[in-house]
Amino acid sequence: MNIGSKIRKIREIKGYSQENMASELEMSVTGYGKIERNEVAVTLDKLEIIAKILGVQIEQILGFDESIAFNNFNSSINNQIGHSSFPPEMKQLYEDKIQLLEDKIQLLQSIIEQLKK
Q1: Are 51 and 57 in contact (CB under 8 A)?
Q2: Which of 1, 2, 79, 106 has its CA 20 to 30 A from that of 33?
Q3: CB–CB of 38/3 below 8 Å?
């Protein structure tokens, strides 16, 4: 798996969009997409910033193995379900995702209302 694919998988696991990443990196979504598609080389400086945004170490990006990450994620979820509380960062991630989905629903509802007129 190449570096861009690893960055993309970690981004997806963390629940970030390409738009979020591009904004944080102060670049266009198209430019950021080129990183994930390995169309451009990623400098060490850029990789450090990406790692910081994703909340991981550079080594974790470079050594990322999707099958291990998936197994660890499932294990973590199963353990959390067995316990009644989620860690604060995971709870915040779910709350942010719920808010994003609620915002999308409102936007779609307003578009539907405008189309009805």
Answers
A1: yes
A2: 106
A3: yes
Read off the tokens for 62: 């470079």
The one-digit pLDDT tens for each residue of the chain (117 residues) are 799 999 999 999 888 999 999 999 999 999 999 999 999 999 999 999 999 999 999 998 988 876 665 555 444 444 444 444 556 666 777 788 888 888 888 888 888 888 887
Rounded to whole angstroms, how far apart are CA atoms 84 and 90?
13
